[in-house]
Amino acid sequence: MLDQPPSPSDVDDPLGEPDRVSPRSLTLSVGMLGTALLLAVLVILPVPYAISSPGPTRDVLGSHEGTPLIEVSGAETFDSTGALRLTTVSGTGGPGFPSSVVGVVEGWLSGSAVVQPVELLYPPDRSQDEIDESNEAEMVSSQENAAVAALTELGYEVPATLVVAGAVEGSDAEGKVEEGDVIVALDGTAVPDYQGLIGQLDQVEPGTTVVLTVRRHGQAVDIPIVTGEKDDGRAQIGVFIDPTFDMPVDITISIDDIGGPSAGAMFALGIVDKLTAQDEANGVDIAGTGTIDVTGEIGPIGGIRQKLAGATRDGAAWFLAPAANCDEVVGFVPDGLRVVRVETLHEAREAITAIGAGTADDLPTCR
Fold it and tell me: Does 207 lie in the same domain as 325?
């Protein structure tokens, strides 16, 4: 007996109509597509958080993209080994560089990044251009301070013209000094440079009246001023000074992609190293950070924990940290990195010399 031929419904028809999609499958597909689109939007959607993470480091004794970071003319220089690394922080969340959801989550999970509300780092009324200009100005000032401090540490005299830029509001100098006055003496003693002025003020008790002599329109003018007190307890005259330095050695620092004042201490150490026959670092990779003023005082900076992580990532074995940042250092030092606490350029110079000589075990650290 012959089999019956199959009915048309039993045969696959490639030209026939496809099976109908069920309402449940359609709802599921639309839901998945919507979820995917939502996730994609969330990935790129700016969020009101700033992320600070370890930035690049630069060896101030070396070059970047073929250009030496420090160049000296007018004095003999010496080759160095090892590295003196300035450290930086990379950030998102500022104007023109918004943070994303993914970046924030990665920051929260990272052991070296910090996530904060954006307004804590970036004032809402400042544009990116204004922030960049401020950072650039701080870097230029930091480089000049580093050069003056380094040359002074090495025994050079660095004369300066101390021009008054204004008076601190509420100080006794307000209404007495004028913009453009040139400071020439304090209590009858000539002031040849900025360090001399600071040194004389260090001998004055806050609240004492001093006589500031300025050159105004070609005439000497004596101005009695009741001194105020700085945060560190030292006396101050309440005058903003815009010094012009007469540098005995020409020093050029080239670094275009980094702003702010926090590289000052490392630039000063780099200048000292280049101008001395002794190879202070002596093959050791040393990183660090800190602002510096013309007297050689090293001040605190932001992002110390990110800088510690960046230093370790790039191979540093030692890190010079400003004493004022020690409370942020304790408990956050990466394995393999040793931290030295410094307050002045002279201390930092002695520290890198001891590290290079292998006698650094007793250097002060953050506790």
Answer: no
